[in-house]
Each structure stands twice: as C-alpha cells, then as structure tokens.
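Appendix C. Worked example: AMP-dependent synthetase
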Amino acid sequence: MGLIYPDFQTLPELFTQVFRHYKGQKKKFPIARKVNDTYEPISYDSFSEDVSALAAFLKHKGIEAKDRVAILSENRPGWYLADMAILGIGAADVPLYPSLPPNQIEYILKDSGSKAIIVSNMLQLGKVLSIWQNLPDLEFIIVMNRLDEKVDSVTELSEAKKTGHAILDSTPDYVSYTMLKPDDIATIIYTSGTTGLPKGVMLTHGNICENVKSCSSIIRLDESDRSLSFLPLSHSYERTGGYYLLFACGAQIYLAESIETVSLNIAEAKPTIIFTVPRLFDRIKANILKQIENQSPVKQKIFKWAFDTGITYHKQDRTSKPGTLLSVQHSLANKLVYTKIKEKFGGHLRYFVSGGAALPIKVGEFFQALGIVILEGYGLTETSPVTNVNRPEKVKFGTVGPAVDNVDIAIGTDGEILFKGPNIMKGYWNDEEATKEVIYDGWFHTGDIGELDEDGYLKITDRKKHIIVTSGGKNIAPLPIEQLIAENNYVDQVMVAGEKKPFLIALIVPNFSELESFAEERQLNWTTKNDLVELKQVRQIYESLLRNISRQLAAHEKVRKFLLMQDPFTIENGYMTPTLKLKRKSINKTFQKEIDSLYSTMNTLYNSD
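Step 2, the predicted output written as structure tokens:
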C-alpha cells in the first residue's frame, strides 16, 4: 500500500490524515511499548487525542507558531507525542540527546531560544533545573514521569494533557495547523560535531516530507510491517526513517527497552525492518559465531558448508544466474541453517537498513550469505537525512547505493560529494556564514569524499577533514585502513593517526573477550587488562595483523606502530559523538603523550620501504 496519504506537504497534515484513516480501528496501532514484561499497543485514537490535548496545553501556555520547544528524552511514547504536539501548533522542536551534560544542554537551549522543554524523567529535569537561571527565554518545563515534589513552572505530562482536554471540551477548534507552509521550520537539530560547538540544522516541513516520500518509493512498507526502535529519535536518521516513514505507511513501531535488550526485544517484536548502525552487526555476528562454537562438530560443519554455499551463491548471483546444482544446495542450506538464524530475529525480518557510519564489506557479505539483507544508506542531518540507499533488488556492499528520488548528486573536482534537492536544509540557525560555507551554487557540500560507479552507486572514501597529511606531504584517507583493521576478530575499535608525522600509527581497542579466550587457551598469566595487552603473545597478534594488512596498502598508507587501549571509545568518555562517530581531535589530544612516544622510538613494525 505504501503511503496512506501521498500528498502531505507538512508533518501535521501527515499526522492528521493517518489518524483520520485509522479512526475507530481498535486493532490498528502506531506504537507499542513494554508494560510489565509485555508489549502493549497504543491505539491511533487514544494517541491522537493525547496529541491534541498536549498541543492545546502548549498553546494555552503561550507557545505560538515559529516558537521553539525542546525535547530531552529517551525513545518512549512521550517523545512522539511531544513532537506531534509541538509541530501541530506550528512551533519547531529542538531534540536533545539524553546523554548530553548540562553545559551542552544550556548552550543549545540558549542558542535556539527555546521557550519550553519537555523532559522524560527526574535525571533530565535535574539537568535543566541546574542551568535554568542562565536561560532567560525558557518559560516552563513539562516532565513525562511523575514529580517527586512540586516545582514552580514544572508540569507533569498527565496534568498537561488533563488541562488540554478541558480546553478542547469547551473550544474544540482551539488548535489549528492550517496556516503552516512547507517552507516553515519543523525542527532544529544540533549536529553533535566531532569538533567545535554544535550547529543548529534548520529542517523545514517540506525537507522532511519530501525525504519521506523519496524513501517510501524504495523501501516499500505497509501496515503489515513493524520495526524495533532503539536508535535515538533525536537523530534525523531514526526520526525520518524509523518514525515518520513508518507512521506514513501505517507500520507499527515497537520500542526497545534499551540497547542492551535489543536481541531479546527482536524475538518478541518480530520486526520486518530494523534501522540500525554498523556497530550492532558486529555484536550480532559475534553472538552467532559464539553460538556455533558451542554446537557439536557435525553442526559446525553444516554451518560452515551453508555459509560457504551462501557466499558462492551470492557471488555468482552478482555476475550471472547461479547454476542448478548451486541453487539446490542453497535451497537446502536455507532449510537447514538460514531459517534457524532468521528465527533469532523473530522470523519475519525482511531487511536491516544500515546508516550513520560505513558498513564493512565483509560484515555485509557475512549476513547476506546467511540470507539476511542489509540495505546500506547514506545521508547527513543537513539532507533530512537520506540521500542514498542500496536497492533491495540490487545490493552492492562497499557502496551506499544510488541517490533517492528528487536528489541530484555530483562529485566535485576535489572528489567532494555534492547534493541538490528539496531535502537540503534551510541553513544553520543564526549562522549565515556557516550556511554559505556549505551551500553555494545551489549545491550542498558534504565534506565527504567519494566516487560513483557505472550504475550510479556511491562509494564514500573518507571525510574531507579526516584526511591525514603526513610530514612527507602524502594525503591519506584513514577510513579504508581502519575498516581493514576492524575486520579482525581481535579488534573492537580503531583509529588511525599520523597528521604531520612521518608514518601512520593505530590506536586499537582490542576485543577483550576474544583476547581473554586466546590467553586462557595458551595458559598465559595475567590479572588486569594492562597485563593482558602487555603480553608478548598478544602484541604479536596485532603486529601480524598490521603486517598482513600492509600488503594491501601503498607504502605511505602502512600502519607502522600501534597502541593498545584498555578502555573503549564511548559517548560517556567523550571520544564518540551521540551518533557513534569518533571524536578524532579529542582522542588525539588526550593520548598525545602516548602517541608522541610511539614516534620517539624509531624501530617500526617493518622497515620504512
């Protein structure tokens, strides 16, 4: 069926039409969340009534069209409710990551001039209360959870809805969105930024609506589809793909309890589509292989045969039609192995959509061999966000697919990827200079380097600003090298460095569970993680890995030394953005001393050929 109402020009128009379509249909629902260990749906009718009530309350409190209202919450029904209500009165919302500390929340609320904020719980409320005296524009707060005690100008969501319902009882047409235009700002999303202060990306109703329409023609969804949501709604990827697109097609959104419970929730929700990031696939792959290791030798052999059959089948399928014998073997492998693995994902999964970072080719091929399709895509907050996605009928790993409908793509003379289309942001909030730096001659300049193949599939080679220039003047893209290193089972995370240095080095976060198994098998003595990474046999693993990789690289691209890290790069320790991108400058700065010491001793892994 696809889009329920294909002609929507603004998001409230979309919401209203979908709610109208499902009015009175008690068995249909847009969202389900866990209550007492069971997924419970929220009907379209009750959700629609709550949206209207909250919108009425916001208007009653003085929120007007074009005002800004912030949302500081984890993924939960209240997030969708807040978003729909804010947009419904013509205001723009400002989503904030719940992991942000008070000083960053203060900067965004002040910069956006937010008049109100809707927070999830006491923790988030505490952050806002601690900075409120520095926010002259902030007039009131709504909290989704129950308050421990009354606080001035803070209202519980249940009370806000009650007040809103009372207003609508006396004035049914109190809230109206009909004055909204496609060019009006729907949201200001602050890019987390790997460097400097975050910038507010202004996305209009038209930007997002056109992007939803473009995606719907590629990723065909209808009311028989359902997803599991765990990526933050404060990020444009989950918001456009995992929320607006699904809602527009009448699909159901099941909310994961947390990132830790995803595998359990997948089995319960039985999703047909999951929007995710590459890091999740690493975990799933490791779990599958771990489970196979614990099977009998016969079952291990069957798995290996089925996996090899899948690899051969898809390799042939890319160039010609697989032969009869191979097709029969593939069909048998499907019965014996692939269907059992698919059952772990609930048994109904049609495909994963992967974005936010590069998907290693070997990871894509691993899942494809087991009958699980991953559609890798690409986009930026500034592009609402989807610009490219692989097509279900033709997946090319190592690429992010062709451009979606309505989006024009070009490669600049320096290799930079450029886009033009109705999905390109209005600009950066209060920052014309920064806007002019990225949008000129009608094209949005991504800052990413890439190339198009003969089918128009885009391959991203690196970030323009991540290019390392060595002391010898060589320009090196670190991303492909990092992907080669990260393919090894003993590597969890990696960052390649070497700016203005004679050669490259790698900061490697080991996969400690693999390392511990390695040490136990060889009866090596260690107590702490530091002891483990200092073991000669452990260091030899990484020396061998980098030597093998060096054979695939030009002389100036070889990684000649490495540092084994004891702690992972995370959002909490400030080494990753909320969208799981490495903060390279922060990592380089913190570990400057250790990095310098690698360059001060000249014996490298291999001679500087």
